[in-house]
Amino acid sequence: MNINATLIGQSIAFFLFVWFTMKFVWPPIMAALEARKKLIADGLAAAERGKHEQELAEKAAKEKLVEAKQQAADIIALAQKRANDIVDESKDKARTEGERLLVAANAEIDQEVNRAKEQLRGQVVNLAVAGAGRILNKEIDAKAHENLIKDLVTQI
Amino acid sequence: MASETEALTSSAYIKHHLTNLTYGQLPDGTWGIAHGQEEIAQMGFWAIHVDTMLFSLGLGALFLFVFSRVAKNLTTGVPSGMQNFVEWIVEFVDTSVRGSFTGKNPLVAPLALTVFCWILLMNLMDLVPVDWIPLLAQSVGIPYMKVVPTTDPNATFGMALGVFWLILFYSVKMKGVGGFVGELTLQPFGKFGLPVNIFLEGVSLISKPISLALRLFGNLYAGEMIFILIAVMFSTSAVMGAFGGLLQLGWAIFHILIVLLQAFIFMTLTIVYMDMAHQEHH
Fold it and tell me: Mean of the pLDDT values across residues B186-201?
């Protein structure tokens, strides 16, 4: 309990320790703490940014999906329409073709009929001429009665 | 208790535990270690408490060694073990300084950290059972060994005076000699109450280091005293010894609070006094 020179020694030690702490202990530790604080703040900011970006991406994806669905629906509708068009077109084409074929067939039939009529007429004329010839073989000269026969032919 | 101390009376035992290992000029003119209170008293001012110096310097060096080693191997990534612990203390001190100190001075925070850790370590020596180290010292021929530096008023006054010089230095530096003298003489009653002002402000200035030193010394000295009294019980009887053991455990647990609290109070008051030294008006 005696106050003595220890007092001076302790004061000197006190100043030395404070000086040492101020020089070699405090600044590096505080610097490290600040650096870590900054690191954590940066990390949090990056996480926040990432979250925000993810939200944006999700929103964009949703929009894209809706758009794609719409497009698909459009394409299907268009295809359906096109298919209907093609069917209709084919129906029309078939009808006109059929009609055309029918007309052609009719014409051919008419032609055939006419030709048959013509042939028949020629043969009838020949037969008539031959028949008349046989009947009138001796009395009628073909040249002399040509007009008569022609007249007859037209009347048939 | 060892056989030598059993022969002693209780008061001699207590006195022995409260005597510092003192080095100084002996009555016969040579320099050496004092054996007994009379010799210590005769040494006067120019003697030194070897045990106080040894333990306080050792503990201060331990604190600086651990902290500077951590400071050298710092990582800004995930801190581990010792670094985590050191950072925890540093942040605690930093928060205290930011809360109480409004000026700008790179000295204050390291000062607070040093004061806190050094005092805490010295106080913690109080929890070492009171006989261990003195007995060990006695067995190698050292007559006295007081292991808690903060129970030596030289240590507490040494630190408090250190703080006091800093208060004076920064008061003069921040306010100028005139400002500081004006603060001491013209407050609180203006220039007509000059003698009263000097008396009041002088008392409040001087009381700062004295209260710092005596508060720490008183608390730790009382705590150490109770440990010694409990230790006296050990030699009386088996029942009393067992009771004493229980008491010692209880007091030690309670004393942890005082140990921490006194270190914290010394640090906080140091910060506050430094803040007052930096302010123009208070």
Answer: 84
Name B244's Cβ contacts closer than 8 Å, sequence gap at least 6.
Answer: B230, B231, B233, B234
Separation CA B89–CA B95 (nearest Å): 10
From the CB of residue A75, how many other CB atoms can be counted at a distance below 10 Å? 10
Write the CA distances from B258 to B115, B120, B208, B279, integer angstroms: 16, 10, 20, 31
Q: Name the residue among B30, B20, B7 with its Cα closest to residue B51.
A: B20
Calculate ∠ Cα A6-A12-A15, nearest 5°: 140
CA of residue B241 relative to chain centroid, distance: 31
Query: What is the torsional sign of CA A7, A10, A14, A20?
Result: positive
Q: Is the ipTM of this complex over 0.85?
A: yes
Residue-range domain boundaries for chain B: 52-142+150-278
A25 contacts chain B (CB < 8 A): yes
Please judge whether A2 and B64 are an interchain contact, meaning their C-beta atoms are less than 8 angstroms apart: no
For residue A14, is pLDDT > 70? Answer: yes
Task: Record the pTM.
Answer: 0.74
Residues of A in contact with B67 (CB under 8 A): 21, 25, 29
In chain B, the percentage of residues whose pLDDT exceeds 70 is 96
